[in-house]
Amino acid sequence: MVHLLRKGDHIVAGDDLYGGTCRLFEKVFAKWGLAVSYADVDDPASFAKSMRPNTRLIWVETPTNPLLKIVDIRRLAALAKRSGALLAVDNTFATPFFQRPLELGADLVVHSTTKYLAGHSDLIGGAVVCDRKRVYERLKFHQNAAGAVPGPWDSWLVLRGIKTLAVRMRQHEDNALCAALYLRWHPKVSRVYYPGLPDHVGSSLARKQMTGFGGMLSLELKGGRRAAERFFSRLKVFCLAESLGGVESLACYPALMTHGSLSKEERLKRGIGEGLVRLSVGIEDREDLLEDLAGALG
Question: How far apart are the C-alpha atoms of 203 and 134, rounded to whole Å?
Answer without folding.
Answer: 35
